[in-house]
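User: Hi! Is it possible to get a structure for several chains at once, not just one? Here's what I have:
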Amino acid sequence: MSDTLHPSGVLSGMRVIEAAAFVAAPLGGMTLAQMGADVIRIDTLGGGLDYRRWPVTANNTSLFWCGLNKSKRSVALDLGKPEGREMAMALITAPGKDAGILLTNFPARGWLDHDKLKEQREDLIQLTVQGDRHGGSAVDYTINSRVGIPYITGDERGASANEAVNHVLPAWDLVTGQMAAVGLLAAERHRFRTGQGQHVKLPLEDVALAAVSHLGLIAEAQLGQQRERHGNELFGAFGRDFTTSDGERVIVVGLTLKQWQAICEVMGLREAVQALGERLGLDLNLEGDRFKARKELGVMVAGWMARHTFAQAAAALTKQGACWGKYQTLTQLVTQDEACSPANPMFRTIDQPGVGAHLAAGLPLNFSGAARIPAAAAPVLGQHTGEVLSELLGVTQAQYGSMCDRGVVAR
Amino acid sequence: MSDTLHPSGVLSGMRVIEAAAFVAAPLGGMTLAQMGADVIRIDTLGGGLDYRRWPVTANNTSLFWCGLNKSKRSVALDLGKPEGREMAMALITAPGKDAGILLTNFPARGWLDHDKLKEQREDLIQLTVQGDRHGGSAVDYTINSRVGIPYITGDERGASANEAVNHVLPAWDLVTGQMAAVGLLAAERHRFRTGQGQHVKLPLEDVALAAVSHLGLIAEAQLGQQRERHGNELFGAFGRDFTTSDGERVIVVGLTLKQWQAICEVMGLREAVQALGERLGLDLNLEGDRFKARKELGVMVAGWMARHTFAQAAAALTKQGACWGKYQTLTQLVTQDEACSPANPMFRTIDQPGVGAHLAAGLPLNFSGAARIPAAAAPVLGQHTGEVLSELLGVTQAQYGSMCDRGVVAR
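Assistant: Yes, the chains can be modeled jointly so their relative placement is included. Here is the combined structure:
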């Protein structure tokens, strides 16, 4: 058995076959793998659509692919050949009480046709991440533009006020990835109780539409309240970026009354805020009124920040229990932030083939009832082909050699 | 039994007590509720920290709170009184094979102390969403600044190039909410097999750090490759916003080769792209080389867009199966987009008390083995207090009346 398998994980014993590319579905699979599930990724020989996705190293190894496939096993088959596709279908439908689970973002046809797979395993659970609900193509960025976020992001004052600001973080992919894990766990729970498998569909478009509904943005728009672009201001309360006397940038948030009072306490603003509230006819103990007075309050906080170094501000805010954060570049994050270092037990330095030693994250969920599974490298493409074919399908060494000869697997 | 309970849902029979505020934990609870779990939210009389969170209606009903608490039941108790806290602990630990599950983002002390709750129910599952792993305070926006995203978002050319651009979408909260559902389902699976409950901790900070690790951003920074700010350009491939001849804005993405070829086909760019590749010494069939040539390719695509109306561009791109999207405001989304209407079975027009009729989303996951649960309104605060106390704890009408008299519940 491979050293990527963890008998002590909260999901140990569960086996998932993943046939997927890009962020959402691979992230869903990795989430399960990092809880101890045996997640076996099937790729075509030479790698799939995301095998060279940027960022890449100087030798063209994808940091993206490695990052999203940690703790999995890798099987590589020539999926252009009927035998390769048959082998993939056999892996998906192989016996095992806690197996027969397929995670994919490829169309449910050919070797991923749900009905054909069900002929081989009646209780199969298949989860398909789709672009839209009709199965059409869409990616995170084409959906983000649809749901209105780029028009309310970014500077309200500058030249860009009429422009759209795309997000860099593929937020919809990240949410969808976790929802894929939710869907599989819920379907597996249902199967455990009823014996029935099913095909679960998860459209990326619907994930984004649901989120803007849940956050109140759809209702707000339907009620005719047009959300404006508010730059870096936190909508509906107090929070934005400020610059310290030595040029560092911090965000300070007064969302709850307690958080707001901590800011006032640190900065000695109680009386000035009281006077401002009276002048404006607002009750600045209410978050919405703080938002209405955000410009005036911002001037006060900015003034305090401009008179304090970062070290002074950080010490005072932390001592008072205020809610704040430093703006950091990614380089500062990896070189200066203790939370992004092996001091944080979620992180571990791994040695990724083709990349070398670097810090990698395990699972953010910390289960008191199961040992933390250390972050592990992504497999080399096809690394576990022979091992998995033997374990799941009983393929002998002789049969495997013959498959090599026919080019179905790589030697 | 309340009409918010769905015996046909994939999680029907599961019961979760939620004591939570803001986005992540309530979203995790709602995800379970929208799969048929009985999610009972406990609030203090008058509502908790997020009960007035913006956006709000003219009468100060929170669209945010309503949006994140759909399909739940609501119990309101005076948590300032010992009797109210005891009642809350009794609800959390009430009997039931598929109950004894607590979701919270409040500190695990007082009536939420895990050890004290375990005295009443040994197999309790508790999931606590935390700011950081030490239990410190943090919100989405103070974490986003830490992980480097604001410094790589927004216009690379304009005056804002040295500024930080906060996100508007609370992406880390949304991801954390789904991970909370993952954690509870995984822990419940574990309990079903072993009989053991546990305390699961989920730090928002770790969710964000793990995501930037998984996307390759931490490895990239550690390898000394500094991610630049690329404005609206999709990193590592081809994709950005363009303006049509009639002033509409669209995003066009050529991430995969197939997507890229569709763009070239629609716009008749094959030969020009071939010539450009030769001139630049790049193979524009490779996604990374398309990113290197993004400015030149962008000029070509922009030229085609400027010669076509939105209707022409949309028809041609759709016909060819290209990956594209329209930029819309939230108002355009709710008034013009078929996917954000009752034509999409995920949506339903609900009548939310205090708000009125508006469109609301159910679950993006579509289970073939269970009926889709229609989106349902959020409860009125305390709406189910009597019903739940009776069902779970056997509180009689006379006892309830006496609790009203003592102010533990509202009349």
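Chain A has a mean pLDDT of 96. Chain A has two domains: 15-212+339-406, 249-326.

User: Great, thank you!
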